[in-house]
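Quick one, tokens below:
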């Protein structure tokens, strides 16, 4: 069953299939695909004759190339075929479908499929996602090449190896490989979020569901608010709680504030008490204020702690905190009395005390401070984090530079946290 040279699916669709006598057994309508080792392979050729469909199994194929396709079977022995949703058909289920190019971190559309002979089989080795695939299906690829040569230009090939693809539709999971899924999980969360944003809600939710909890939490933080709400609202409360728990409290509060109150309450009930309280505390603040921007995850130590001990404590405490820029110094009543940078901490003598290296001329804001004022202070004093205190000076949280970046983006990109 040889397959000669370069062959694309579009080149065999509607081609005649000959029986041993040279009569036309039908014209190619599609091919069925099954999982193969190492690549998916053709299991049968579906032909159409007189408004009826017939199936010729791969082992019954004699010749298979772009010039001629033939079968060992006489026409009378070819079995009828009925369209089945259980079968994976290349033209019906793969052509024109969206897939994730995990290597390029983007969503692409399949314009054609490249086939190649391997150990007596016809395997799917790549998909064409470029203009060539479209022109080939229209039957004008060669003519277009000639036209471009007049201008000394070339039409590039845009083929993606099947190993770098992650099908999105559930049906295509039957031929999905484990490597592509791992590759998707290894993409930057922002890239995953961009991919999810480019596909339908159903496909995005399916791709999101396949992510591990940690990756899902990071990707969720990068999605637009309405898409976050759609995905979490459609999930089981316990499953959603696992993802929300992995997020920083401020990001978690943002997501929950966009959900219906009953759904948010149900999710909070499945989150550990201490973490749920941190999130609820942030949900109490008005939007567009420091309280609505801040996170209550920060590191604070007493002034009499030695530099050596502070560094040891920091190594443990920082593991559970998203971003750390400063060490805050608080007294026994949690009142903010100083701050030191990580640089100063590392350069100080091990036996020195935090009180000896801390900066006491502090810039602070209250939870009610307007977000634009917060942005102005951070910009004016070149800060990467700004502490938020109550009227008595108790440290409540911090607003970090990444929290404020949204405030200098166009209004459409801004998130509004609904007070609960």
């Amino acid at each position: 069953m040889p397959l000669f040279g370069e062959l694309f699916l579009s080149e065999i669709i509607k081609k005649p299939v000959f029986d041993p006598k040279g009569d036309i057994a039908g014209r190619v309508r599609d091919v069925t695909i099954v999982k193969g080792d190492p690549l998916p392979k053709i299991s049968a050729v579906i032909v159409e004759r007189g408004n009826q469909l017939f199936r010729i199994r791969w082992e019954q194929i004699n010749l298979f190339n772009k010039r001629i396709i033939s079968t060992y079977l006489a026409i009378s022995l070819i079995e009828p075929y009925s369209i089945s949703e259980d079968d994976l058909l290349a033209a019906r289920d793969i052509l024109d479908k969206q897939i994730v190019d995990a290597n390029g971190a983007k969503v692409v559309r399949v314009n054609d499929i490249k086939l190649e002979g391997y150990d007596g089989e016809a395997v799917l080795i790549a998909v064409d996602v470029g203009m060539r695939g479209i022109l080939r299906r229209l039957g004008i690829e060669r003519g277009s090449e000639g036209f471009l040569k007049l201008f000394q230009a070339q039409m590039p090939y845009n083929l993606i190896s099947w190993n770098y693809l992650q099908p999105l539709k559930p049906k295509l999971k039957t031929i999905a490989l484990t490597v592509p899924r791992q590759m998707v999980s290894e993409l930057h969360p922002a890239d995953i979020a961009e991919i999810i944003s480019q596909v339908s809600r159903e496909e995005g939710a399916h791709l999101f569901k396949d992510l591990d909890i940690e990756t899902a939490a990071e990707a969720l933080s990068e999605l637009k608010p309405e898409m976050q709400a759609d995905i979490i609202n459609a999930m089981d409360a316990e499953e959603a709680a696992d993802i929300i728990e992995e997020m920083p409290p401020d990001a978690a509060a943002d997501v929950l504030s966009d959900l219906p109150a009953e759904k948010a309450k149900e999710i909070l009930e499945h989150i550990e008490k201490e973490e749920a309280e941190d999130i609820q505390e942030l949900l109490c603040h008005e939007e567009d204020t420091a309280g609505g921007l801040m996170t209550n995850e920060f590191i604070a130590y007493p002034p009499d702690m030695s530099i050596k001990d502070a560094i040891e404590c920091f190594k443990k405490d920082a593991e559970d905190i998203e971003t750390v820029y400063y060490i805050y110094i608080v007294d026994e009543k949690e009142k903010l009395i100083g701050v030191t940078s990580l640089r100063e901490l590392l350069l100080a003598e091990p036996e020195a005390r935090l009180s000896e290296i801390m900066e006491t001329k502090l810039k602070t804001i209250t939870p009610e401070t307007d977000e634009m004022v917060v942005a102005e202070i951070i910009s004016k004093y070149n800060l990467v984090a700004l502490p938020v205190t109550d009227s008595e000076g108790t440290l409540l949280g911090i607003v970090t530079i990444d929290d404020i970046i949204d405030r200098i983006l166009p209004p459409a990109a801004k998130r509004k946290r609904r007070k609960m």
